[in-house]
Design goal:
Keywords: Cell cycle, Cell division, Cyclin. This protein is mainly α and about 425 residues long. It is built from 19 helices and no strands. Helix 8 crosses helix 10 (about 250-265). The chain is elongated and about 140 Å long. The chain starts with 15 loop residues before the first helix and ends with a helix.
């Protein structure tokens, strides 16, 4: 087999003219035309073989360098060959325009990217993943799911709302210091607490007589169309006075009438006159007796009329509960039932107010409604209110029966939305069984 000398540079002996004519195109000529034809054929078809691309050349070709790469020409340029090159370049240009172009600025050359053999990479994909790596991937996936669950819980977690945001321009809402005001009320209710067993020092009056008196005063309050806070202050004055003074049975109604008169002077714009109070007592007392009892009560209480009653807390807690008229009326119906019962003196006024609203919510909706906002402003949780709420449900059950039905008759009218007709929240009692 003969060995070709085409690739042997020592066999090429160009003339001076030929060397000057073709070396400027990067091609050396030979005397053998057949070998030159083979070489030209190899160079012209060189695009079908893989090439080694220099990184520097690649960077320059993508616009990183302004220097144009040299154009290799492997054969003398004749008119026919130039026409072929121009035709092929034009055809290549039309093909390139049909392909989506990548912006030059989005193309980057990674200097440190390792070159991976395709066959080795495909073979490596089929190999099993080590146990440690599988465990790591599983752990990461579990951690991501756990983190997503925690984030979803945070999203749906109930938050307290600002109940005073809509009253910033209302001067009567005193938004600037309303929190300080109720902090003072909470402090004062502790100082002005009434002893829950003060009846032990009364020799002629008992708990039943007190309940009858307050039930009657509820009807008097309703007939005179007095303000709601007047009733709560009336009951407070009666209990505070009986805590410090012993009263005979026949003077107990007089104490109730005078307490109503004092509460009207403190809360009402227009108040009933003394003769009206004497009249509703069926003239059991004289005008002089009313005025003397008024002085006795004021001196005993040292003229201290400003005390936090359940009413002031009711207004704040109902606002926190975002209540409507139906919830308002039912809440006041339940708390007025509490005013009649002597045993409810063991609870602070704010606690009774919160428990009444919570019980009213359970009565209307049948489910838990004590929100984070209610808990924030009342300082009481649902668990703390359950015991008192069950007592209120018991009062609600027997409100229409027995002898003390004044509160039920009052709230069984259209003016109060027939709140007394609501069915008690009996399911609160079933939780104890």
């Amino acid at each position: 087999m003969g060995v070709s000398n085409e690739n042997n540079p020592t066999m090429i002996k160009p003339t001076n003219g030929q060397e000057m004519g073709y070396r400027k195109f990067g091609v050396e000529t030979r005397n053998n035309r057949r070998a030159l034809g083979v070489i030209n054929q190899n160079f012209v078809g060189a695009n079908q073989y893989p090439r080694v691309i220099n990184k520097r050349g690649l960077s320059e070709a993508n616009g990183i360098s302004n220097k144009d790469p040299p154009i290799p020409v492997h054969r003398p340029i004749t008119r026919k060959f130039a026409a072929q090159i121009a035709s092929s370049q034009q055809q290549h240009y039309h093909e390139e325009t049909k392909k989506p172009k990548l912006a030059a600025e989005n193309f980057s050359v990674w200097e440190d990217v390792p070159i991976i053999d395709v066959e080795e990479y495909e073979a490596a994909k089929d190999q099993p993943v080590p146990m440690s790596l599988e465990q790591t991937e599983t752990t990461l996936s579990h951690d991501n799911n756990t983190q997503m669950e925690i984030e979803m819980e945070d999203i749906f977690e109930e938050t307290a709302i600002n109940i005073d945001s809509d009253d910033t321009k209302n001067p009567l809402a005193v938004v600037d210091y309303v929190e300080d005001l109720y902090a003072y009320y909470s402090k004062m209710e502790v100082c002005s607490r009434i002893s829950p067993d003060y009846m032990a020092q009364q020799f002629d009056v008992n708990e039943r007589m007190r309940s009858i008196l307050i039930d009657w005063l509820v009807e008097v309050h309703h007939k005179f169309d007095l303000r709601e806070e007047t009733l709560f202050l009336t009951v407070n004055l009666i209990d505070r006075f009986l805590e410090k003074k012993s009263v005979v049975r026949k003077k107990l109604q007089l104490v109730g009438l005078v307490a109503t008169l004092l509460a009207c002077k403190y809360e009402e714009v227009s108040l009933p006159v003394v003769d009206d109070l004497v009249f509703i007592s069926d003239k059991a007392y004289t005008r002089k007796e009313v005025l003397e009892m008024e002085k006795l009560i004021l001196n005993t209480l040292q003229f201290n009329m400003s005390v936090p009653t359940p009413y002031v807390f009711m207004k704040r807690f109902l606002k926190a509960a975002q209540s409507d008229r139906k919830l308002d009326l039912l809440s006041f119906f339940l708390i007025e039932l509490c005013l009649v019962e002597y045993e409810m003196l063991k609870f602070p006024p704010s606690f009774i107010a919160a428990a009444s609203i919570y019980t009213a919510q359970c009565t209307l909706y049948g489910v838990k409604q004590w929100s984070k906002t209610c808990e924030l402003h009342s300082k009481y949780s649902e668990d703390q209110l359950l015991g008192c709420s069950r007592l209120i449900v018991g009062f609600h059950q027997k409100a229409a029966t027995g002898k003390l039905t004044g509160v039920h008759r009052k709230y069984n009218a259209s003016k109060f939305g027939y709140a007394a007709k609501c069915e008690p929240a009996n399911f609160l009692l079933e939780r104890t069984q």
